[in-house]
Automatic annotation (TrEMBL):
Record-level Gene Ontology MF annotations: ATP binding; ATP hydrolysis activity
PANTHER family: ATP/GTP PHOSPHATASE (PTHR43581), EXCINUCLEASE ATPASE SUBUNIT (PTHR43581:SF2)
Gene source species: Methylomonas koyamae
Domain of life: Bacteria
Domain (ATPase AAA-type core): residue spans on this chain: 40-134
Entry-linked Gene3D superfamilies: P-loop containing nucleotide triphosphate hydrolases
InterPro entries: ATPase_AAA_core (IPR003959), Bact_Antivir_Def_Nuclease (IPR051396), P-loop_NTPase (IPR027417)
Pfam families referenced in this protein's UniProt entry, alphabetically: AAA_21
Descriptive protein name: ATPase AAA-type core domain-containing protein
Length: 242
């Protein structure tokens, strides 16, 4: 951008500026500042106008600025006759690997729409592992979601993040932590063995209980949880002693 400002290639400079401003939420203006020796972006945050230097932006913002600036620069260089309309009128195909990389979930919901609005005649082919990206495609007739493993299109429905993670990305019980799921598995194994044997000193049972107790430590200060565990154990043992 600094070189463009010095060379007075106005149509290229304006294309790059428009692309940056179009992509950054709340951005009003972008320019190269000689004193700072970097790009500055004027943006509105919580109703206040602030000027933010490039180095203070997150990795996600910096990566996105670099990408759209490069796209706009190439468009303006190859199609100078389009002048101010170059980023709106230039056609092309752009491949993006991991479009959600380093982006905050809130921006992941906006990035596809912003790209398509900034470069309306460009076809983007992007990969992503983000349920927020998938969710943002709902209701868009200009987007196609493709399952690479099954090599087929995916119907985009109005689903929650958890449903998308479970149904589309095959994550078991995404609303639960891995620690919680591990504890559930340990509890099931322990109580299954407890039902099978009559001897509380059974070595396998003791090992399973040790594993279960280890995973239950984060919940040990919950009296209701502790009482429930004791009740379950006592109930099983009482049933066996009848």
């Amino acid at each position: 951008m600094a070189a463009l400002q010095k060379q007075e290639r106005r149509h290229v400079l304006e294309a790059v500026r428009d692309a940056i401003v179009g992509m950054i939420p709340g951005a009003k203006l972008a320019w190269w500042d000689v004193d700072w020796d970097e790009i500055l972006i004027e943006t509105e945050i919580q109703g206040k106008t602030q000027t933010i230097p490039f180095h203070l932006l997150s990795d996600g913002y910096r990566n996105m600025i670099g990408m759209v600036a490069d796209i706009a620069y190439r468009m303006a260089t190859l199609n100078p006759q389009l002048e101010a309309d170059v980023i709106k009128q230039t056609e092309g195909i752009v491949l993006i690997d991991e479009i959600d990389l380093h982006l905050h979930p809130k921006w992941q919901r906006e990035v596809v729409g912003r790209l398509l609005n900034t470069f309306p005649k460009v076809q983007f082919v992007a990969s992503s592992h983000s349920p927020f990206i998938i969710q943002s495609l709902y209701g868009r007739e200009d987007c196609l979601l493709w399952d690479l493993e099954k090599a087929c299109p995916v119907n985009i429905e109005s689903e929650s993040i958890e449903d998308i993670a479970e149904d589309q990305q095959h994550v078991d019980m995404p609303q639960k932590s891995k620690r919680y799921l591990d504890m559930m598995a340990a509890a099931e194994a322990y109580y299954r063995r407890l039902h099978q044997v009559n001897d509380e000193t059974d070595q396998e049972l003791l090992q399973l209980r040790s594993r279960f107790d280890e995973l239950s430590i984060p919940f040990s200060d919950d009296p209701a949880f502790a009482a429930q565990l004791k009740f379950e154990r006592d109930s099983v043992l009482a049933a066996k002693n009848k």
